[in-house]
Specification:
Keywords: Glycoprotein, Membrane, Signal, Transmembrane, Transmembrane helix. This protein is an alpha+beta fold. The protein is 30% helix and 31% strand. Among the domains are: 92 residues, Immunoglobulins (Immunoglobulin-like), CATH 2.60.40; 75 residues, Immunoglobulins (Immunoglobulin-like), CATH 2.60.40.10. The chain is built from 5 helices and 18 strands. The radius of gyration is 42 Å and the shape is elongated. It starts with a helix and ends with a helix.
Length: 286
């Protein structure tokens, strides 16, 4: 139970522990910038002295008084004198070393090998297809410098594939039934997923059915607008008595919809009444 709790604590701190095949050393993985706790095994109950070494140099030393920290361990190291655990913060790649610990003058085994890795980048999926258009190769690309060793996995739609290599070959038969592909890139300290891309054969097999509805919709909208314009022109002709291009006013002006025949009749009446008013005025003056 104690060992299980220690492993869970290490995984919670973004660090991973594995045991070498011959059990000669414990391998602990840490992510650049994170912290890691190195936990020795077989620690005695009563601790009187602790010496950690980043083989062969002394890293931290304690003999009942103050902890004597060396080099980078002065700022980034912490020693728990009750458990013998050494914590490193702000991990860098150069912290990847073999660490040994002596408690009460006795070296505890196995030693701990720390491996510090960069997190994997977000991968991208690229596609290249054969000239015969029978198969395509999908590549899960990403700069993995400092993050290796890495592993790959592939997903088609919502199904995880058995392929764990960097490339995935898609046949026309397989790709025509799948809409999207994506890949996952991971190492012992991180994992990232790519954006899904459309299956190249799904696009080819479904391109015509997708375009046809768009064409029909476009034609329908065009003729609907055309009918609306024609109706507007006819209504204007009936109401104004002339075609719209014969009007001197603009559509947003009130006079645009005025009937030209009624307007002309009103103008003639006003012209006839004007001389009559002038004659009446002259008669009154005499």
């Amino acid at each position: 139970m104690k060992r299980s709790g220690s492993l869970m604590a290490l995984m919670a701190g973004c660090c991973f522990v594995s045991l070498a095949p011959a059990a000669s050393e414990i391998v602990v993985y840490g992510k650049v910038g994170d912290k890691v706790v190195l936990k020795p095994r077989g620690v005695p109950k009563n601790i009187t002295s602790i010496t950690w070494k980043d083989d062969p140099n002394i890293a931290m030393d304690w003999e009942g008084g103050e902890v004597d920290s060396k080099r980078q361990f002065k700022e980034r190291g912490h020693l728990n004198t009750s458990t013998g655990e050494m914590t490193l913060t702000g991990l860098i790649v150069n912290d990847s070393l073999l660490y040994r610990v002596e408690i009460n003058g006795q070296e505890l085994t196995p030693p701990i090998r720390l491996i510090v890795l960069y997190p994997v980048p977000v991968p991208t999926v690229t596609t290249s297809c054969e000239d015969d258009n029978i198969s395509c190769i999908l590549m899960c690309d990403g700069n993995t410098t400092g993050a290796e060793p890495v592993t790959y996995s592939w997903k088609s739609d919502d199904t995880v594939l058995s392929n764990v290599s960097k490339e995935h070959i898609v046949t026309k038969e397989e790709g025509s039934r799948i809409k999207m592909f994506s890949c996952e890139l991971m190492n012992n300290v991180s994992r990232r997923n790519s954006e899904p891309i459309a299956s190249p054969f799904w696009i080819q097999n479904n391109n015509t059915p997708q375009i046809l509805p768009k064409i029909v919709t476009g034609i329908t909208v065009f003729f609907s607008l055309l009918v609306a314009v024609v109706l507007l022109v006819v209504i204007h002709r009936c109401k104004a008595g002339v075609w719209f291009y014969e009007k001197g006013s603009m559509p947003w002006e009130a006079d645009f919809w005025t009937n030209e025949e009624k307007k002309a009749a009103t103008s003639d009446n006003n012209t006839t009444r004007q001389p009559l008013k002038e004659e009446v005025a002259e008669t009154q003056m005499t």
